[in-house]
Write a structure and sequence with these properties.
- This protein has 342 residues and is of the alpha/beta class.
- The chain has two domains: 159 residues, 3-Layer(aba) Sandwich (Rossmann fold); 177 residues, Dehydroquinate synthase-like, alpha domain (Up-down Bundle).
- Helix content is 46%, strand content 19%.
- The protein contains 13 helices and eleven strands.
- The strands form three sheets. Strands 1-2-9-6-5-3-4 form a seven-stranded mixed sheet, with helices on both faces.
- Helix 6 packs across helix 8 and helix 10 packs antiparallel against helix 11.
- The N and C termini lie far apart (47 Å).
């Protein structure tokens, strides 16, 4: 198996396999195990798991990242009398691995877990880096912990089962990695992103592994992975999650490119390159301008806000992230209207 190492509070491998079901059986056979997965995934696994495995079925999508789901899962684990030698395996999209990681961080103050992402966004973003958490009514990912898995298993074949909408949405996170670090990703998207999908996934994971290994707890460098996410998360929540995470991030990337142009020295060509790449992926380009006051209010709950001031990750050039600090509301609104507001 090919591997990428992630060095954080502990080192672990992102392993690429075409024998995922054998891997899952081995993981759950060797120690007392819990599988956390939505019904759509459990129906694929079927009867292949050892009878001793505790299976916790969760909702599809962002609905599972709730205090209610989290609490019910913990109660099931406690009722099963699982001890600190247990293993929790999360199989699903980014929401599932976010939830699973936080269960592992919280149960008995920390147990081992393995992430098996089945979505493109999960593979290149959510499952890598040890960020775990839940959503609150006040905002996305406001509860959580840094708790790395002991391994991440990637099977490209899951990508062949994704609806086209989910595949395109996941490509927003891939494009982000191209904008902030590995610009060859942008060329591979231009060339034929469907044909180059496996390489794009590998390169995107390598970008995230490099950044996370340098700054596990997001004290500085790791913030660059949030490029496009300040507005993206606000749009996602404002849409009541009717927009996929990646669809919302695509809007955030266009907004961030405009902010980078206006405040961080990004060239006109490089700003327009964002639209070119995201348009080629068929990703969202507009959001109703009448929603701006509500979006701004949601953005104020972003984790990067300091002293009530919204801070943005921006670019001074492609592959060169920086920050825009102390932006006033009028600055932000202008960037919104000149990029995605309609």
């Amino acid at each position: 198996m090919k591997e990428i190492v992630v060095r954080s509070e502990k080192s672990y491998f992102v392993s690429f396999t075409d024998e995922i079901w054998k891997n899952i059986y081995k993981l759950t056979f060797e120690r007392k195990a819990v599988i956390v997965a939505p019904k759509s995934i459990l129906s694929i696994i079927g009867e292949s798991l050892p009878s001793s495995v505790l299976v916790i079925e969760v909702e599809e999508g962002e609905a599972q990242k709730s205090i209610s789901t989290f609490g019910k899962a913990l109660e099931k684990m406690a009722a099963a009398k699982l001890d600190r030698t247990c293993l929790i395996v999360g199989i699903g999209g980014g929401a599932t691995t976010d939830l699973t990681g936080f269960l592992a961080a919280s149960y008995l103050r920390g147990v081992d877990w393995v992430a098996i992402p089945t979505s493109l966004a999960g593979m290149v973003d959510a499952a890598i880096g040890g960020k775990t958490g839940l959503n609150l009514e006040a905002g996305k990912n406001l509860i959580g912990a840094f708790h790395s898995p002991i391994e991440v298993l990637i099977d490209y074949r899951f990508l062949t089962t994704l609806p086209d909408r989910d595949l395109k949405a996941g490509m927003a996170e891939v494009a982000k990695c191209g904008f902030i670090e590995d610009t060859e990703i942008l060329n591979l998207i231009d060339d034929d992103w469907h044909e180059n999908l496996n390489e794009l996934v590998y390169r995107s994971i390598a970008v995230k592994a490099k950044v996370v290994s340098s700054d596990f707890r997001e004290t500085d460098l790791r913030e660059i992975l949030n490029y496009g996410h300040t507005l993206g998360h606000a749009v996602e929540r404002h849409s009541k999650y009717s927009l996929r995470h990646g669809e919302s991030v695509a809007l955030g990337l266009r907004f961030a490119a405009e902010a980078s142009y206006q405040f961080s020295g990004l060239s006109t060509h490089e700003r327009d390159r964002h639209d070119q790449v995201l348009d080629a992926l068929g990703l969202n380009s507009k959001y109703p301008k009448v929603c701006w006051p509500e979006l701004l209010e949601i953005m104020r709950s972003d984790k990067k806000v300091r002293g009530g001031r919204i801070r943005l990750v921006t670019l001074s050039a492609l592959g060169k992230p920086t920050r825009a600090e102390n932006l006033c509301d009028e600055d932000l609104e202008r960037c919104f209207l000149e990029s995605i507001g309609e």
